[in-house]
Amino acid sequence: MVVFLTVLIWVWADLELDEELPVSGATITVTKSDPKRWVSFEEESSVSIEEVVLKGPLTRIAEVRRRLEGGKGIEFSFDAAQQKMNEPGEHALILLPFLQKNEEIKRLGLEVESCKPDKLSVKVVELVKRELKVKCVDEDENPVEADIKPVPHVDMFVPEDWVGDAKVRLGRAEIEHARLAPISKTPYIRLGDQIREAQAVVEITTPQERDLRQDYLVTATYAIALSPNLQGEYKVVITNREAVLAPIAIRATPEAKRAYEGQAYPPMTLYILDDDIKKGTEEQQRTVVYNFPPELFRKGEIELQNPQQPVEARFKLIKVPAGATE
Description:
Layout (H helix, E strand, L loop, with lengths): L1 H15 L1 E6 L2 E5 L6 E4 L5 E4 L1 E7 H12 L5 E4 L10 E6 H6 L2 H6 L2 E6 L2 E19 L9 E3 L3 E7 L6 E4 L2 H7 L4 E3 L2 E4 L2 E4 L4 E4 L8 E5 L3 E5 L7 E5 L2 H4 L3 E5 L1 H9 L5 E5 L11 E4 L1 E2 L3 H5 L3 E3 L7 E8 L7
Parallel strand pairs: 2-6, 9-12, 18-21
Antiparallel strand pairs: 1-5, 2-4, 3-9, 5-8, 7-9, 9-11, 10-16, 13-16, 14-15, 17-20, 19-25, 20-24, 21-23, 22-25
């Protein structure tokens, strides 16, 4: 009985003993608000709090500490209407009482002792309905030619001084699909870091792609990429040099051709691997790597005329005699 009562006393004492926990990086996020209002913290939908000092029983504090160590932060929701800050203009949100009344804090069984900063600026902008033109863009925000139905415009709520279109963003696969059949998309605008979507859905059709590429012959030069372990130890001898240096037949847009010829890198690179020395002076064979500008190659604006037949370079590795210089 004495042991049992002692344990109860210690448990009760532990529950009664409060501890403080400073937390940095907690966030306050604006909840979905009135579609006719744009509520933000300096045009951002969320803001990071420099420091919040939480206080509560050791067990509760330990639970929050484990949560933070696991990478899960503390988030607070801000409802402008609930805080009576829904009227257009600038409002001052006094942080301490707001956080102390927060449902998340109550759920955790904690109290907020203090916070930095002591207040935040809340901006509320009244939105007006406007008819906006719908503009299609790709993933890089470049305009995409498209037919938009039933009409190429939508009604949206925007700030009074709004200048711009409602957008529809199309991925590469969507652009290709829209050439075969219409696809449904929802136009949107961006207010700060918030996305506002239109109530209407439009049907997008893109025209058949015109191939602007032409066939060209590009002067061939190459670089040899040799491991630091082999430099100065081995010399690379290309045994079919004439074939490797034959003009490179490419299919490219004029801009991509100019970029390929004008870049600092040579048109081709032959990579020599450390394991290649295992074959001694035996002739070896490897496909050269074409140094097409990566972004233009990704977009399909430049490639070999016959991608299945890149040049195969034949080469030998010759051991450089000790003390010899090339």
